[in-house]
From TrEMBL:
This is Tfp pilus assembly protein, ATPase PilM. InterPro entries: ATPase_NBD, FtsA/MreB, PilM. SUPFAM superfamilies: Actin-like ATPase domain. It comes from Thermobacillus composti (strain DSM 18247 / JCM 13945 / KWC4).
Length: 322
């Protein structure tokens, strides 16, 4: 008997809502079965904060009417502007004890720009040798409870249920793991480029090691403003170079360079951005787009929209599993 699994990923930005439903049948390639996007009303979300819940919920309801998904359970990502991501060195303890250590650190030593934090963590690298006092690299992700509730409530108003919540860089990492572009032992920089905000993630040996959300305004493609496009591309190159410096010197990867830069996102300038990155004297890396070859796509529209759907596809893959 065929074992069929399906899952729905939902991305909500300041400007749009995007969804993708992934289906896997037995051991066949994952299929992007359904996808859709809807523009949000102006100022309904600003810097990740939902200001008009009913307007956002109605947009989600319209999105689901177009999509007609098989499930109403969704995997969502919190906006980067609402999330704090820190990479710490902590004692290599069992998860329950480590959570207590992190609670103490958040209360007494780690300053947060918000109240009532909710957090989770991921241990990175290899376990420390037994019996020692060695430290372990830990990725800490924290977000305000109020923001989490806002997104859960607006999803519920739309007749949906939140199955999981995570950060965008982990969704993108899951996607390139599926495409085979997260190579063991390699350092990969992921750049998901949006109209107003871009997410950068440094992946080393298959693990997220640095993540940043960068405000960069790309011009409207209909404006034909090539000077503004060059400035935006230049800003992105500078931010990638800064991230590489931080990765090398703050995280003690001084002998590492970026092996590959992978681009995705909703802007129509990705090939132009590839050329700008290739022209940087400080980035000696292979530059390409996130590949869609690991997926079956039912329509030409899905192929054309694949790069703009990178985050919701990565979210849906969480529901599909390995």
């Amino acid at each position: 008997m065929w074992n069929k699994r399906f899952a729905l990923g939902l991305e909500i930005t300041d400007f749009a809502a995007k969804a993708a439903e992934i289906t896997v049948r037995s051991k066949s390639r994952a299929a992007i079965n359904r996808h859709a996007a809807e523009r949000l009303p102006d100022d309904s979300i600003r810097e990740g904060r939902i200001l008009q819940k009913e307007a956002v919920a109605e947009t989600l309801r319209s999105l689901m009417r177009r999509l007609q998904p098989r499930t109403r359970k969704v995997h969502i990502a919190l906006p980067g502007s609402s999330v704090m991501i820190r990479f710490l060195k902590l004692p290599d303890l069992p998860d329950k004890k480590l959570r207590k250590v992190i609670e103490f650190e958040l209360e007494h030593r780690i300053p947060l720009p918000f109240d009532s934090p909710q957090f989770d963590f991921v241990k990175l690298g290899s376990p420390a040798p037994a019996g020692g006092d060695a430290l372990r690299d830990v990725m800490l992700v924290a977000a305000p409870l109020e923001t989490i509730r806002e997104y859960a409530e607006v999803v519920a108003l739309a007749g949906l249920a939140v199955k999981s919540i995570e950060i965008r860089p982990l969704s993108l990492l899951r996607l390139i793991e599926r495409t085979g572009q997260a190579e063991p032992g390699k350092t990969v920089l992921l750049a998901d480029v949006g109209d107003r905000m871009s997410d950068l993630g440094m992946i080393h040996n298959g693990e997220l090691r640095v993540a940043r959300s960068i405000p960069i305004a790309f011009p409207d493609p209909e404006s034909g403003d090539s000077a503004a496009l060059r400035r935006a591309c230049g800003e992105l190159v500078q931010e990638i170079e800064r991230l590489l410096i931080f990765f090398r010197y703050n995280l003690r990867f001084r002998d590492r360079s970026i092996d590959r830069i992978l681009l995705s996102g909703e802007v129509p300038y990705l090939e132009r951005i590839m050329l700008e990155l290739a022209g940087s004297t400080n980035l000696n890396a292979e530059i390409s787009l996130v590949s869609g070859e690991a997926f079956r796509m039912r329509t030409i529209e899905a192929e054309q929209a694949f790069l703009s759907l990178a985050v919701p596809i990565g979210l849906a893959l969480r529901g599909i599993g390995p």
